[in-house]
């Protein structure tokens, strides 16, 4: 499935003019969805509808779908029922996110609405199974995790991963969404949130693109929404980089790679997991070529406890016509997180990219080309045997 990126806006906290400017910025960087809470805006039914009508017009002008958070109390105020969503059709909303369930039959009525409004439910296996039992196809609705404004209260990572696997076990066609946070200064969110609005506590203070890459690396998250506002243009640039489909597999494969694929030694039919490397100041252009331009990197299941190694590049760079000259590295040991490249002092393995997991001796056969910082190193536990790996510059 193609991943979608979304943002959140809070009309009770910021003016429509500020929100429109945010739409324009987000739209330039591949954002396709806007989340907002309908029941958090005060006013009469007519006032609330008129506000969101204007917001939806502004979003659609920037090619953004609008998802409104609603609940039974909001339905009652708006004069809606699971069988009658005409009031929401009148403002041209795209998605209704149900904060509470109406039970399997009521939820099914919501999904079957005649207006084409997509219904998104909380990430509950009970809701999903209930819908499937009454004949609703998982392709016809969405599920999304909550966000958590209060620091230290968001989901455990392992529980998040396990719940997603349970949901995907119901059907791989089910789209799952989750929230990440901007780490920019002076962000805002629901209920005076100033500490970000993630789904998983572990992600709360990490760089925004690392949050996204960790969610994607689980293989079960389809849609990523920024829970707080306003994310910066620099954050959007980084998210666009990690969410885009790689174009490195669309062209003609390197002959060596093609041979490995044709013989079933490696498979390219896998998601790409991306690591952001802080480059060593002495890295050469040739070393950058191996790190960034050669693709894919992958571990074939035979690394030791000491290093993660991608052997594929060596099939090309260990050839006599390729030169990876040794460079003096002024340290006796390579430390955890160091990214090294095997040089021509061990020509048979020249071109291997390795990441240190336990400190190893610098014996002159490896050049230091970069480092994964402590936060980035968390990605290593999410890279499995045979996964395609792409390196990005920090």
Question: Mind explaining what this structure looks like?
Answer:
The chain is built from twelve helices and 16 strands. It has 394 residues and is of the alpha/beta class. The chain has two domains: 4-243, Aldolase class I (TIM Barrel, Alpha-Beta Barrel), CATH 3.20.20.70; 255-393, Cyclophilin-like (Cyclophilin).
Q: Summarize this, please?
A:
This protein is of the alpha/beta class.
Write the layout of secondary structure elements.
Blueprint (H helix, E strand, L loop, with lengths): L3 E5 L7 H12 L3 E7 L7 H17 L3 E6 L1 H7 L7 H4 L5 E4 L4 H9 L6 E5 L2 H9 L8 E3 L12 H14 L4 E6 L27 H10 L5 E4 L6 H11 L11 H8 L9 E8 L5 H9 L13 E4 L3 H4 L15 E2 L3 E5 L10 E4 L3 E2 L4 E6 L16 E6 L1
Parallel strand pairs: 1-2, 1-8, 2-3, 3-4, 4-5, 5-6, 6-7, 7-8, 9-16
Antiparallel strand pairs: 9-15, 10-13, 11-14, 12-13, 12-15
Helix pairs in contact: 1-2, 5-6, 8-9
């Amino acid at each position: 499935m193609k991943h979608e990126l979304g943002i959140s806006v809070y009309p009770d906290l910021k003016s429509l003019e500020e929100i429109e400017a945010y739409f324009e910025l987000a739209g330039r960087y591949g954002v396709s969805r806007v989340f907002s809470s309908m029941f958090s805006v005060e006013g009469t039914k007519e006032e609330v509808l008129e506000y969101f009508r204007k917001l939806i017009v502004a979003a659609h002008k920037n090619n953004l779908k609008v998802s409104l958070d609603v609940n039974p109390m909001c339905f009652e105020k708006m004069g809606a029922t699971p069988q009658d969503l005409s009031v929401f059709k009148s403002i041209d909303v795209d998605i209704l996110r149900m904060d509470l369930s109406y039970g399997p039959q009521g939820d099914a009525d919501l999904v079957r609405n005649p207006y084409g409004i997509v219904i998104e439910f909380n990430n509950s296996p009970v809701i999903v199974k209930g819908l499937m039992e009454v004949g609703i196809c998982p392709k016809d609705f969405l599920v999304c995790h909550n966000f958590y404004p209060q620091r230290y209260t968001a989901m455990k990572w392992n529980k998040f991963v396990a719940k997603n696997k349970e949901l995907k076990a119901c059907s791989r066609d089910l789209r799952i969404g989750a929230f990440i946070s901007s780490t920019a200064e002076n962000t805002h969110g629901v209920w005076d949130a100033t500490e970000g609005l993630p789904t998983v506590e572990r992600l709360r203070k990490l760089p925004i693109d690392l949050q996204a890459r960790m969610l994607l690396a689980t293989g079960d998250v389809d849609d990523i929404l920024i829970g707080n506002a306003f994310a910066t243009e620099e954050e959007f640039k980084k998210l666009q980089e990690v969410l885009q489909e790689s174009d490195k597999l669309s062209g003609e494969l390197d002959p060596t790679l093609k041979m490995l694929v044709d013989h079933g030694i490696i498979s390219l039919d896998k998601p790409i997991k991306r690591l952001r490397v802080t480059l060593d100041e002495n890295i050469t252009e040739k070393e950058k070529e191996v790190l960034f331009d050669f693709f894919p990197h992958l571990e074939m299941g035979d690394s030791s406890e000491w290093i993660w190694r991608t052997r594929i590049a060596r099939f090309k760079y260990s050839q006599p016509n390729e030169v990876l000259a040794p460079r003096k590295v002024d340290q006796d040991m390579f430390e955890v997180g160091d990214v090294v490249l095997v040089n021509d002092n061990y020509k048979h393995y020249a071109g291997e990219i390795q990441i240190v997991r336990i400190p190893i001796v610098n014996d002159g056969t490896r050049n230091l080309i970069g480092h994964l910082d402590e936060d980035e190193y968390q990605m290593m536990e999410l890279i499995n045997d045979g996964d395609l790996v792409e390196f990005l510059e920090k």
